[in-house]
Amino acid sequence: MLAAVAELKYVPNAHAQMLARSHRSAVGVIVHDVSDPYFAEITRGLQRVATADGRLVIICNSFREPDRELEYIDLLHAHQVAAIVIAGSGYLDDATAARLDDRLRAFEATGGRIAVIGRHEHTGDAVLPDNEQGGYLAGAHLFDLGHTEVAVIAGPSYLTTTFDRLKGLQRAARKYGCKLPKKRIIHADFTRDGGEDATARLLTEQPEVTAIAALNDSMAVGALAALRTAPDRRLAVIGFDDMPIARDVTPSLTSVRLPLTELGERAMTLALGAAGDAPRVEHVEAALIIRQSTWSL
């Protein structure tokens, strides 16, 4: 029989095996975009723990489209995965959050486990990076350096991550007696191109600005690119997340560090662990990492 298996290059039917086993061998991960360095680092941690537990990881890119997330939850449910990890920002819209929560509860009712990274209004365990405190650290650093005319290039306004990080910046502004007027807060995609376009607008529309707080490192890299085209403007730039590229750009990027791989590891550990009597929440602190892209005024 083994000779026939080798000759025919037989591959077992994974769906049939799953039906025959009581053990669910796969886990699902829904990220906004795994090609984004932020989610790539988180996914590294998720896969590390899942692989050590003998699990196959099914990765789904939602591209920040709630309807696509709903479709993926249903798909993963149909595949009888052991757990679903949602690794991306939640949505501020109550109706959207409720629709996602309804699908997740249906999955949970069949024995599936759920964990989320970030602030979500969903059932399941959660790993919460301290985005609000991280925003405060970014703002306090710039104000400590003497920058009072600070602009923010922020991600999409409908995401909880954007809201929380901006809230921290606003708290820092109040403490230092400064202002962050709406005209100096520009929302764009959480991408390098989004950051470059937003900074180009600031250079034209806000000549008084001396510093930029970017709400993720990809946007900050785009800001630095835009500034290279305007050598007469020297602006301090701070990012958020402290992705590996932050050390390698010129100037090296001051950023707020979140342990991205650890976020993934902790979320997958929760998802594969036994369910508790109540949802578990693990908080992860942010830290300021000072490099060359910020300077005293």
TrEMBL record:
A Pfam family of this chain = Peripla_BP_1
- Going by the entry's taxonomy, the superkingdom of the source organism is recorded as Bacteria
Q: Where does the Periplasmic binding protein/LacI sugar binding domain lie?
A: 26-229
Specify the protein name. Answer: LacI family transcriptional regulator
The scientific name of the source species is Paractinoplanes durhamensis
Q: Which lineage?
A: Bacteria, Bacillati, Actinomycetota, Actinomycetes, Micromonosporales
Gene encoding this polypeptide? Answer: lacI_2
